[in-house]
Amino acid sequence: MLHLPMEENLLDERLGRLASLQPLDRLQHSRNVAGLSATLAGLMDCNEDQIRKMYLGGLLHDIGKQFIASSVLDKPGKLTQEEFEQVQRHPWIGYVHLYRFVSDSTILNTVLYHHERWNGSGYPHGLVHDEIPLEVLFTQLVEDGCLVRNRQEKPSNKALALQKSTGIVAG
Ligand SMILES: [Fe+2]
Ligand SMILES: [Fe+2]
Questions:
Q1: What's the CA-to-centroid distance between 56 and ligand 2, angstroms?
Q2: Per-residue confidence in pLDDT tens, the chain, 171 aa
Q3: Which domain covers residue 100, as residue numbers?
């Protein structure tokens, strides 16, 4: 039987406090990524310590956004190239921030590499294939799932889905 880890057993107090400084919507996203990453790690028969680290990596993966202006992060509409480059710095900023007091490579790799992509199109380093640590691929997988769901929840996309379902727009 699958044992799903409970949040209170996994949450390191100090890192949990740090994660809780995120604005509510981002904290909710991070909790979703953390919980799903831990669940996936459990399904893959990872041990309890690995599951805990996957959870904390997910909880902290976007912590670098704390250091980027909300006027950029929450800007409605299209970002300028310069703003986009600012947002793309959040994995590196988060890594540098955590590196001072976190030594675990699973957590640090998740923060630094969660926007790398299998085909090399990601950032910050444009890693390809197995240059990306396995545990980070787990987090990417669940994060992409969360982001797809978030996009579907936006009113404009709901309207688009409705239009598609009624045949107004081709699917
Ligand atoms: Fe994220
Ligand atoms: Fe991110």
A1: 14
A2: 444 455 545 557 888 888 889 999 999 999 999 999 999 999 999 999 999 999 999 999 999 999 999 999 999 999 999 999 999 999 999 999 999 888 899 999 999 999 999 999 999 999 999 999 988 998 988 888 776 566 554 444 544 443 344 333 333
A3: 6-170
Establish if 31 belongs to a structural domain. yes
Predicted TM-score of the model (pTM)? 0.80
Residue 124 is part of a domain; what is its CATH number? 1.10.3210.10
31-38's contacts with Cβ under 8 Å and 24+ in sequence apart are 31/59, 32/142, 32/146, 33/58, 33/59, 33/61, 33/139, 33/142, 33/143, 33/146, 34/58, 34/59, 35/7, 36/142, 36/145, 36/146, 37/138, 37/139, 37/142, 38/4, 38/5, 38/10
On whether residue 1 sits in a domain, the answer given is no
Give distance in angstroms: CA of 62 to centre of ligand 2.
5
